[in-house]
Amino acid sequence: MKLSNLKQVDAQGLGFLLGYSALAALLNYLTTIQPTSASQETRPWILGIGWALIVLFYLPIYGAFIYSIRKWNWSLDEWGFGLKGRNWLSIGLALLALLFVWLPLPPIELGSLRIGDLGILREMFAQAGFSMQLVGGYARVAEELLFRGFALILFRRIFSHSRHSWLWAILLSSALFALVHTHRVTQMIQLFLGAAIPLAAFTLWTRSISTAFILHAIAGGGPVGGLLAVIFFFGPAFYNDRKKQDRSSKTGLEGIGSEPADE
After folding, report:
1. What are phi and psi of 63, to 5 degrees?
2. pTM of the full predicted structure?
3. Is residue 163 part of a domain?
4. Considering its fold, how many domains does the chain have in total?
5. CA 77 to chain centre
6. Considering just the CA atoms, what is the radius of gyration of the chain in Å?
7. In angstroms, rounded to a whole number, what is the distance separating the alpha carbons of residues 224 and 227?
8. Residue 257 lies in a domain
9. pLDDT one-digit tens code per residue, 18-64
10. N or C terminus: which one in the chain shows less Cβ crowding within 10 Å?
11. Domain of 143?
């Protein structure tokens, strides 16, 4: 695939995706190699500045989401904000995961596997506080918009001439996700195979971004982050469903109006 053969929209999208991913990877690397001291207490105003910078850094992704719909005519269904068919398999799994985090359910033992034993995780996020969970959820939702939304749509469009456009989309979006998150090869492979590919494949198969949204938001923002992801998903999803119903009703009325009058 030559860049000269790309459509203008695809070229713009690819430039944004690669440029933003490169910047994110660089910042992640710089923050990883900086020594941190757990003994020093961070002042509230420093935390406030840090959270503001996080909000500003991820804002372009939300802007790209809106821009792609208004200017490039990417549909909310393409983005995974649907409420039909297999969408509900993804939505149900996502809500079940959120239920396990929010409710003090007793652990379920399946041999050596314990499901629902999330006391330590709840305690950790409770210590982090509401604001940190909210910012964490905001950041993880943005990452899913970029890698399981924007990147999947873009690569499927770029490789639309191929029968395996879905496979290219999964592999390339997952590779970018892994490259951005770590510079260590072993961790990169684990993230690529263990998280990125399964999430991308499940998102494409169910045509819903809800599971990726909520699972990643829970991992980075706990119960509050997961709830934020639910709100962000169902807002556009209900809007999309209502818009399709309105179009269907309008089409039906136009069809009735176009019937020939009885003579």
Report:
1. -65, -40
2. 0.85
3. yes
4. 1
5. 14
6. 21
7. 5
8. no
9. 999 999 999 988 887 665 554 455 577 677 788 889 999 999 999 99
10. C
11. 46-247
